[in-house]
Every structure is written in structure tokens, then in C-alpha cells.
Amino acid sequence: MLAIRNIDLFYGAAQALRGVNLDAEIGKVTCVLGRNGVGKTSLLQAIMGHEPVKNGMISWEDEDITRMAPYERARRGIAYVPQGREIFPLLSVRENLETAFAGLPRRDRNVPDEIFDLFPVLKDMLRRRGGDLSGGQQQQLAIGRALVTRPRLLVLDEPTEGIQPSIIKDIEKVIRLLAGRGDMAVILVEQYFEFARDLADDYVVMDRGEIVMSGAAKDMVEADVRRHLTV
Length: 231
Fold this sequence. Notes:
This protein has a single domain (2-227), classed as P-loop containing nucleotide triphosphate hydrolases (Rossmann fold, 3-Layer(aba) Sandwich), CATH 3.40.50.300. 32% of the residues lie in helices and 26% in strands. The chain has 9 helices and 10 strands. The strands form 2 sheets. It has a 6-stranded mixed sheet, with helices on both faces.
């Protein structure tokens, strides 16, 4: 399990996170909701080690990773799909997938067949450049690249942004399948409420760098959550 306890994060003098607590369990999808600019991506940056926290602790599978470098977190099974996908446009689909080999031991440096089962379009486009793919196909590639690392924790930042509805449905099925296997925790940052609601086992709502609501999705009061999502 990922356990975040009372973390604070600053950008210079500006405080982005204030005493944030969050748990993410294996076999469950934890959805982080909130308006733009409330600290959702900063929370993910803290989890990945891309931004240092000033106070508090982050632990993963009972190990304190608060001061651990991003590559060390990746080697412990934490994978990140960033907002905007950040695939390499001039590399082929195959080469994009193989960039995930860097943190793997030599024996594991292969692309699992499961990725092509989850995203068949990638198998048909292995030689195509990443920049030639549609936005939805690039999102599938970004998720596939993360899965090459065989993660135990998958962190996704707004995977539905700018994606056509048919591919959103495909991504929803994949996330549900991955969590349902029972060997991976998923943290999903999302603004699209219906997508998050349908996937979440647990949820947290952020506002101004703080967690203002949290709980099991089955206990979620939609009207209360939506109040924190509208401008």
C-alpha cells in the first residue's frame, strides 16, 4: 500500500500541498478529484519524487520513500503516466515502449504480450512514429510504456484529456482490468467526474492544496463532490 501522511509541498514561497493524507491499496483504484490548480498534479509529482516535500512522509510497501530519487521509486514498481502523455514523437511505437527498459533488470527487458492484448492498435503500429499517432493512440502508448515496467503502483494524470469517447471507454476497461487482477494499486487524477465515479473504489477531493473530502466510492455523495469541481 502507498501511505501519504501530512505532506507539505512548496514552489518557492507558494504552498501547493497542505497536510495531505492519502492511502492507495493494491487491487483498488483511488481517484483524486478537484478543479484545475488545486494541487492534484503536485500530489503526483510528490509521489514520483519529481518535487521534494518539505514535511510529512510517503511510504510504499512499508518502506519510507520520501527522500528517494524518482528512478529508485521506479525500480520499486511505481510507474507514472503524465498529463499530456509525453511520448517521444520522433521515436517509433516500439522504441517508445523500449524506453521503459532503463529501470529494469536485463532479464526483464522485453515488451510483455499483455500490452498488445490490452492495446491491440499498438501492435499494428510498432513501426509508426509516436508523433503520427492520434491523441487517443498516444495515450494508449503512454499507458503501455508504463506497464512495460511491471508496476505495482500505476499513477495516471488525467488520462481522458483530449481523448475521443471510444478510446476513453477502452482506457476505462483497461484500468478496471488492471486493478481487478489484485496485484496493482492505481491512483487516477481526473476532472471528468463520470469516468472517475465509475472506476473509483476510493476517492479524495482536493481544494487549495488540501484534501477536503475522502472515502469509499460507494459512500460518495455526488452533489457534494461536484460542488468542488465546478468553477
